[in-house]
Structures are given as structure tokens and as C-alpha cells.
Design a protein that fits this description.
With 470 residues, the protein is mostly helical. Helix content is 72%, strand content 2%. It has a two-stranded antiparallel sheet with strand order 1-2. Helix 2 (20-63) packs parallel to helix 8 and helix 5 packs parallel to helix 9 (206-240). The longest helix has 44 residues, at 20-63. The radius of gyration is 30 Å and the shape is elongated.
Length: 470
């Protein structure tokens, strides 16, 4: 059985290798994959360089801020920047449409700024080719072109009956054809992956490279499941279709719906099911929420501090009453922003859940979501960074406002600080979440992908048990 399987696989491989059309298809897809990987790594290296330069420049500007009142320095603001994950070179995900910088300032928690997609021509967005696009759309097309005639072509040539009559089992025949179809595909994907790995080593620090390896492994596994699903589907359709032409038409129709139609349609469905507020509507909701802060909160806060120090007059407090209001007022406003951002983020996650559930109809949606999640370019990891920025902003403001509270005398009209205070605030050091964290938030998309693969793997033997011979 093993020798028969290998002979069938070898025959398929030889036929594919001799077919000029397939050689051209392999060459084009391999070239696109290599080009997209190298361009992705080049873009990642450039973005990383720009972000590091901007962070260094912003840090120097902050440390060299001329003498200011600490609260005025908070109004002056501070920019922080989102680092690019290494595997964004493979799958850019939502990164081009999510801002890369955040302005931190007193009283306001701002939305992200500087979205890369805003700097591109509209037509350029349609021509963007990443490694993920090649793997999700073009490789399945190549698999279809390789496998659509596996059984239908043998039937039309009259060799299928002969193969079965000499004792070759349909399962062995299918396994050999699947292996013969996957072998040339792997011969193009493995070198491309090796080149991508070398580029990754050259463009990332050792610690970053080690952290990205589990994510890269999960990505590789998911794409193997995705490709295996297309191989099985092609074999089933080829076994059932009366002609190779009909098999090709049916498979191309599925490819067109799965890869080109479903993502757009499901995005519209998710937007319709879970409506999102515009930026102006969100900011208006924040302002309305601020109005719900008790109007007498200042009196309450001062009364609490008077009770804490067992005094009856503000003048007797050992700290600056104005500084107290700065510290406590920022807590009230931070709660408002955290509450509204949490609502907004939950809406985004609900939209993503609707989109991911659409993977039950077409597997493209599942591989898209899982690929972005493992690459670190999905919404979950954008939210993780934004929450880290929120915590950093809270600590930044606390240090500045507490300095006013503790050190500025109530009767002191002019109170300024210099570099010694600014240095007490360390730069934002963002620690990206682990691969396990990312996988945990993409369990649904991965589970649906495994479900597709399992259903097709189980359906293939059943389809071949009643294979059409004529």
C-alpha cells in the first residue's frame, strides 16, 4: 500500500512538473510570496526605525521641557508610540487603519492618531499585497488548479477504471494524489518560509525573535490546515463531478465566494448587526458622561481630606488643596474615559465575534482572524496596547499632580519644576502579550478552522467510497 501511494504521488508530481502552465503558476506565486515577505520585512524595519527615532526624540523633548508647573507640563502633553510586531511583516491586519501614536494630556484621553492608511492613495490600498494575501487567496487557487482533475481527469482519460481494477484502493489513490499535489506546493512554501525566517532574524532582537517563534509556529499550523482543507475539497469535488471542467467551475465558484465575496459581505453584516459610533459621537458620549460627575465633588473631596487630617480649614492642610483637586479630579475623569472606552472596545469585539462566526460558512474568515491574531495585528492586541497606554497616562499624571499637591505652597503663585521631576517618569516600555494570550483570544477562529478541516477530512473517505467511474 505504501509503495502504491508513493508511486501515485510520484506520478502526480511528475505530471505537474512537466505541465508548463503549472510551472508558470508556481513561479508567479512563489515570486509574489518572496516579494511580499521581503517587502514586508523591509517595511517593518523602516517602521521600527521611525518609531524608535520618534520615541527617542519625544523623550528628549520631554526631559528638556523648560521650567513649567507640573500640571502645565501635563497640558503640554507627551506622545507615545505603538511598536510594530515582527510578524506584521507577514500579516499587516488592521495596523494600517489603527493609529501609531497617542497624545497624553491632562483631563482628556485621546484616540489614536497617525493612521498609515491615511497617507496612502485610495487606489494603492486595493493593490496592497502581503504574504497573508498570497497565502489566503492565491495559494488556494493554485491548489484548485493542481487538484481539480485528480479523479475527473482520470475518469475522462479512462485510466480511473483501470487503476481501480488492478486493486488500487480509492483511499490510497486519493492520498497519493493529495501528496502529489502538496509536494510541489511545499517545495515553494518551505524556501519562502526559510527566507522569511532569515529576514526575521536579521531584523529583530534575539528576545523579540524568541517571543515571535510560537506565534510563527501557530501561523504555520493554521495555514497547513487551511491548505489541507482545500486539497480535500478539491478531491471530493473531482471525485463527484462528471467532468473535469465542471469540477473546475464548482471549485472556482467556491474560491471566489470564500476568498473575495465572503470577507466583504460579512464585514457589512457585522457592521449592521453591531453598529459603531463615530468619533464625534463617542466624544459627545464622553462629555455627557462627564456631566454626570456630582457637581459638588470638589466640596466632597476637600471635606474628606479635612477629616483625614482632623482640621477644619483648608489653610491648615499640610498639602496644597488645589493639588488635591487635581489628583482627585483626574481620578473622576479617568473613570469616565475607562468606562466609555470599555464600551467602545466591547462593541469592536462583538463585531469581530460576528465576523469570526461567519467562518462557519467560509473558512477564509477564520484564517483571516487567526492570522491577524498570531501576527499581533488584530483588534485584541490593539486594545491591549491602548489599555497599557491608559495605565501609563494615569501614572504620568499622578506623579505630576502629586508634586503640585505635596510641594507647591497654597500662596505660591509661580511654581515650576525642571528636568529632575521629568526624569522621575520613565518612558513607556510596552510588553506585548504572549502567544498563549493571543491564541486564547482566537480560540473560536482556530476552532472553526479545525472544524472545517475535520469535516472535509471525514467527508473525503465517504465521497471516495462511492466514486464515479464513468
Amino acid at each position: 500500500m505504501r509503495s502504491a501511494l508513493l508511486r501515485i504521488a510520484h506520478k502526480e508530481f511528475i505530471e505537474v512538473s512537466r505541465d508548463g502552465r503549472f510551472r508558470w503558476a508556481f513561479g508567479v506565486i512563489f515570486a509574489l510570496l518572496i516579494m511580499s515577505l521581503l517587502m514586508g520585512w523591509r517595511h517593518y524595519a523602516e517602521v521600527r526605525r521611525q518609531i524608535e527615532a520618534a520615541q527617542g526624540e519625544q523623550r528628549e523633548l520631554w526631559l528638556n521641557t523648560p521650567g513649567l508647573n507640573p500640571h502645565s507640563a501635563a497640558h503640554h502633553g507627551l506622545y507615545v508610540f505603538k511598536p510594530a510586531p515582527p510578524l506584521s511583516s507577514v500579516d499587516s491586519g488592521i495596523a494600517p487603519y489603527a493609529g501609531v501614536s497617542f497624545l497624553l494630556e491632562a483631563h482628556d484621553q485621546n484616540l489614536s492618531q497617525n493612521k498609515p492608511a491615511e497617507d496612502r492613495l485610495a487606489v494603492a490600498r486595493f493593490g496592497e499585497t502581503t504574504a497573508a494575501v498570497t497565502l489566503q487567496i492565491l495559494v488556494p487557487l493554485l491548489i484548485i488548479l493542481l487538484a481539480f482533475s485528480s479523479f475527473a481527469g482520470e475518469r475522462e482519460q479512462g485510466t480511473l477504471r483501470h487503476l481501480l481494477s488492478i486493486g488500487v484502493r480509492p483511499k490510497t489513490l486519493a492520498a497519493g494524489k493529495a501528496l502529489g499535489a502538496m509536494a510541489p506546493l511545499l517545495l515553494s512554501l518551505i524556501p519562502a518560509a526559510a527566507i522569511g525566517a532569515v529576514a526575521m532574524v536579521l531584523n529583530t532582537a534575539p528576545a523579540t525573535f524568541a517571543a515571535a517563534l510560537p506565534r510563527a509556529g501557530a501561523l504555520a499550523l493554521s495555514y497547513l490546515l487551511y491548505f489541507g482543507m482545500f486539497v480535500g475539497l478539491a478531491l471530493i469535488v473531482s471525485a463527484k463531478a462528471p467532468t473535469a471542467r465542471l469540477a473546475l467551475v464548482a471549485l472556482l465558484a467556491f474560491w471566489f465566494i470564500n476568498c473575495l465575496v465572503a470577507p466583504r459581505v460579512m464585514a457589512d453584516v457585522a457592521h449592521h448587526v453591531v453598529a459603531m459610533p463615530s468619533a464625534s459621537e463617542f466624544l459627545q458620549a464622553v462629555e455627557e458622561d462627564k456631566k454626570r460627575i456630582p457637581p459638588d465633588w470638589k466640596e466632597r473631596v476637600i471635606a474628606g481630606w479635612l477629616s483625614k487630617y482632623r482640621v477644619t480649614r483648608e489653610e491648615d492642610l499640610p498639602v496644597n488643596p488645589f493639588g488635591i483637586l487635581l489628583v482627585e479630579g483626574e481620578k473622576w475623569e479617568t473613570e469616565v474615559y475607562e468606562r466609555n472606552f470599555a464600551r467602545l472596545f466591547d462593541l469592536y469585539e462583538r463585531q469581530n465575534a460576528v465576523y469570526t462566526a461567519g467562518g462557519l460558512l467560509t473558512p477564509m474568515l477564520s484564517i483571516q482572524m487567526f492570522s491577524m491574531g498570531m501576527a499581533g495585528t488584530d483588534f485584541n492586541q490593539s486594545r491591549h496596547f491602548m489599555e497599557a497606554v491608559g495605565r501609563y497616562r494615569t501614572e504620568w499624571l499622578r506623579i505630576l499632580n502629586e508634586d503640585v499637591m505635596l510641594h507647591q505652597r497654597p500662596d505660591q503663585v509661580v511654581y515650576t519644576r525642571e528636568r529632575d521631576l521629568w526624569e522621575q517618569i520613565p518612558p513607556l516600555v510596552y510588553q506585548p502579550p504572549s502567544a498563549r494570550w493571543a491564541f486564547g483570544r482566537q480560540k473560536l477562529s482556530f476552532g472553526i478552522l479545525v472544524l472545517w478541516f475535520s469535516v472535509i477530512a471525514l467527508a473525503t473517505p465517504a465521497a471516495l467510497a462511492r466514486i464515479r467511474i464513468e
